[in-house]
Design brief:
By secondary structure, this protein is mainly β. The protein is built from no helices and 15 strands. It has strands spanning about 1-5, 15, 20, 35-40, 50, 55, 70-75, 85, 90-95, 100-105, 115-120, 120-130, 140-145, 150-155, 160. The strands form three sheets. A five-stranded parallel β-sheet has the order 1-4-7-10-13, with no helix packed on it. The chain is globular and about 50 Å long. About 40% of the residues are buried.
């Protein structure tokens, strides 16, 4: 959890690199987020770096789930110029049948999120409940989900593999 106080007092120069967070067991469960950053920069000179991290086992390894959407990595507001590369996010599980999303990467920032670079990331095995038949809904599983006004300078060379069936729910996605 690396969140600055505000756009006026950002958490500048943030670097989260080469970590393994979680281990995909009930004992190693890391909750609803592997990494979350917000209010890191309002200019390129202050931008954050998320690189070389492995995020595994976010969410509920059982069958109940959380009453909240979950994400391997969330990028919040005021993260101008953030560089996100060479990360491996997998086994993000949200089995709740109550209608919550499950995201490898969640971009939720609405302002000051321009010029981000998102490249060479690997995302796989992101599951949620089959809650809705809607083709676009926040309440299902996504490798990458943009819920707000993020603008990328570069979004390239990422691998997103959604090859694990959703384990719960009665609706066909």
């Amino acid at each position: 959890w690396a969140v600055g106080a505000s756009s006026t007092y950002p958490n500048t120069g943030l670097q989260i690199r080469n970590n393994v967070i979680g281990d995909n067991t009930a004992a190693g469960n890391i909750g609803s987020r592997g990494i979350i950053i917000s209010y890191t920069a309002t200019s390129e000179a202050q931008s954050a770096i998320l690189s070389g991290n492995e995020i595994v086992g976010v969410g509920d390894p059982g069958t109940t789930g959380y009453a909240v959407s979950i994400a391997g990595i969330e990028i919040g507001t005021a993260c101008f110029g953030t560089k996100i590369y060479n990360n491996n996010v997998h086994d993000v599980k949200q089995p709740s049948t109550g209608g919550w999303g499950s995201y490898g990467f969640l971009f939720s920032g609405a302002t000051s999120c321009d010029s981000m670079r998102f490249y060479n990331n690997f995302v796989r095995a992101i599951t949620a409940s089959n809650y809705t038949t809607a083709s676009i809904s926040a309440y299902t599983n996504y490798g990458v989900y943009l819920s707000a006004g993020s603008t990328f300078g570069d979004f390239s060379n990422n691998t997103i593999v959604m090859n694990v069936a959703n384990p719960t729910g009665a609706t066909a996605n």
